[in-house]
């Protein structure tokens, strides 16, 4: 998945270059995915010159994707239930990563 590769590249880049306000400034921009009637044209946006903000947004989207995949499972057999449970566990793991990044400056 390209989300994972992008997240890993951000983490590797931050180890070499300090991407933060007052250091190397890269403005990361995200649009509100939950704004009513705005699938791809949200007017609400958040911009931050912080690599942790970007990693947090990426993890949130990965968690949402895993949760959605889990919800799509039929639940009619053991394999589907196992896949759904694994997806939900992955989603929680990524959500916990969001909490960690949100707590960092």
Automatic annotation (TrEMBL):
Span of domain BRO1: 1-105
Q: Which GO terms describe its biological process?
A: mitotic cytokinesis
- Cellular component aspect of the GO annotation: endosome
The record's PANTHER family line, in alphabetical order, gives: PCD6 INTERACTING PROTEIN-RELATED, PROGRAMMED CELL DEATH 6-INTERACTING PROTEIN
What is the name of this protein? ALG-2 interacting protein X/1
From what organism does this protein derive? Stichopus japonicus
